Amino acid sequence: MTIAKRGRPPKQARCFDDTKQALLLTGMAILTERGFNTVGIDYILKRVGVPKGSFYHYFKSKDDFGLQVIAHYDQYFCAKLKRCFNSEPETPVEGIKRFIEEAVEGMQKYRFTRGCLIGNFGQEMPILAEAFKQPLADCLQHWTALLSATLKQAQDLGQIATEIDCQEQAEFFWIGWEGAILSAKVMQSDVPMRKFATVFLARLT
After folding, report:
1. pLDDT one digit per residue (tens) for the chain, 205 residues
2. Cα–Cα distance measured from residue 136 to residue 63, given in angstroms and rounded to the nearest whole number
3. Which of 71, 97, 106, 192 is most buried when burial is the number of CB atoms within 10 A of its CB?
4. DSSP tag of 176
5. Exposed e or buried b for every residue in 17-29, given b needs 16+ CB within 10 A?
6. Quick check: 117 and 80 in contact, CB under 8 A?
7. What domains, with CATH codes, occur in the chain?
8. Helices and strands in the chain: count of H runs, count of E runs
9. How many Cβ atoms from other residues are within 10 Å of residue 102's Cβ?
10. Backbone angles phi, psi at 80, to 5 degrees
11. Residues 43 and 30 sit within 8 Å (Cβ to Cβ)
């Protein structure tokens, strides 16, 4: 009979996908709080517990990492929008309200230290590489398309005014919402977000 040796169990090496996922998720969390240009790679690696030399096994450069974080965040955020918007299929506007409420609760949870990752990158655009411009614009286009479709659904159900231009209102929402999030961080209060949401929803009727 073989007797098991005492002591700690052997460490299991992370596979490529696990480590890369951990870096991307940590990057998302950090970059909703801090600017891309102010965050060093060492800081991210320390949070994940990955050796410094490992970073370039997963990403070609810091910019490559930033671009992949943006793509990862877009996937996450689109999934969140679909979940909220589809939560009340017979009352689409309630789905929009659910998204707004979850966003407010998220800001409160992190004491207004986190914002929108895309908005944070957008504020740094003048000092970012040109390669960031289109991916950031694509994110806003994806979100706009999802909101526009939800507004169209509400319109078809007779729940918002027929003269509403759904695409225009969706674009207006994200322009204003990003500003409301920034104001909420500055004021350390959810008031800007709630005020904008109230005005936006009132415009629909």
Report:
1. 444 444 433 344 445 468 999 999 999 999 999 999 999 999 999 999 988 888 999 999 999 999 999 999 999 999 999 999 999 999 999 999 999 999 999 999 999 999 999 999 999 999 999 999 999 999 999 999 999 999 999 999 999 999 999 999 999 999 999 999 999 999 999 999 999 999 999 999 8
2. 13
3. 192
4. H
5. eebbebbbebbbe
6. no
7. 70-203 (1.10.357.10)
8. 9, 0
9. 13
10. -65, -45
11. yes
CA 42 to chain centre: 23
- CA 84 from centre of chain: 14
13's tokens:
């090496």
Contact 146, 75 (CB under 8 A): no
Task: Phi first, then psi: give them for residue 40, nearest 5 degrees.
Answer: -85, 155
Specify whether the CB–CB gap between 31 and 119 falls below 8 A.
no
Residues 6+ apart with CB under 8 A from 169: 148, 151, 200, 203, 204
DSSP run (H or E) holding 104 = helix 92-109
The answer to whether 82 touches 146, Cβ cutoff 8 Å, is yes
Q: Which tokens is 186 given? A: 């500055």
Nearest to 100 by CA among 118, 81, 116: 81
**Best CA proximity match to 99, nearest among 110, 112, 86:** 86
Please spell the DSSP secondary structure of 56-92, one letter per residue. Answer: HHH-SSHHHHHHHHHHHHHHHHHHHHHHHHTSSTT-H
Dihedral sign of CA atoms 126, 130, 133, 135 in order: negative
pTM across the whole model: 0.89
